[in-house]
Amino acid sequence: MPMTTFIRTSATDRVTTITLARPELHNAFNEVVIAELTQAFEAVGGDDAVRTVVLAGEGKSFCAGADIAWMKRMVDYSFDENVADARAMSDMLRTIRECPKPVIARIHGACIGGGVGLAAACDMAVAVRGAVFCLSEVKLGIVPAVISPFVMEKIGPGAMRRYALTAERFDADEARRIGLISEVVESAADLDAWIAKIAELIAGNGPQALAACKQVLRDVQATADWDEKQTITSRCIAERRASAEGQEGLKAFLEKRKAAWAGE
């Protein structure tokens, strides 16, 4: 991994954790954080030793949204500079969402604005009960535009309209009810225990199948045409059945043994 300023990366037992490391600013992000997260997820996505990726925050919060100093600089940006800046953030969120490895958000404290976008870009998320969520942008006279496709994918248009328009805060139980997060736990230790359990389940699955699964789910969602859905899904399963990994998985099942990747 290249040297970074605002994130830390650690790896253990096929799990890589990418941690936002600006605790004094509640892990608020700026253009440097965006670039570093993009690079980190591109790197981990291509690392065959990694099975699961965890996105976490150091200190009291997961991510409190945009850095105030960065927002002050935006005031003087031209329209084109603002478009480029927003596109860089969108590219970062897409890199997380399209990472070929399963990605888990580990949420505690504040998860505000763009922090909600980060959580939504992950495949799943776990939060402590005391975590606080908010789509706060309209309070500042702006809108949650860049993060909206990622958040709406998770919570649906009804909940998106409510929380984007009211900018009200909601708790972890509500975040789970609307689909933003997968599980609510009581403590930091419980966060890590839940992640370890999920990572163990993931480790038993075909690495290439996981990447293909993420891809086909995106492809199916991207089209409303049922003929195209049938073509996409039929080709996907045919390719996987004929692949070396698919052949090994099916043989292992029939022979009542662990697949090769599960014993690594």
The biggest beta sheet is recorded as:
6 strands, mixed
Question: In the CATH hierarchy, what is the superfamily of the largest domain?
Answer: 2-enoyl-CoA Hydratase, Chain A, domain 1
What's the gyration radius in Å?
19 Å
Number of helices: 10
| Shape estimate | globular
Summed over residues and divided by their number, the pLDDT gives a mean of: 94
Q: What fraction of the residues are assigned to beta strands by DSSP?
A: 5-15%
Number of DSSP-assigned strands: 9
The arrangement of helices and strands along the chain is EEHEHHEEHEEHEHEHHHH
Contiguous low-pLDDT stretches (5 residues minimum) are: none
Question: What's the gist of this structure?
Answer:
With 264 residues, the chain is α/β, with parallel strands linked by helices.
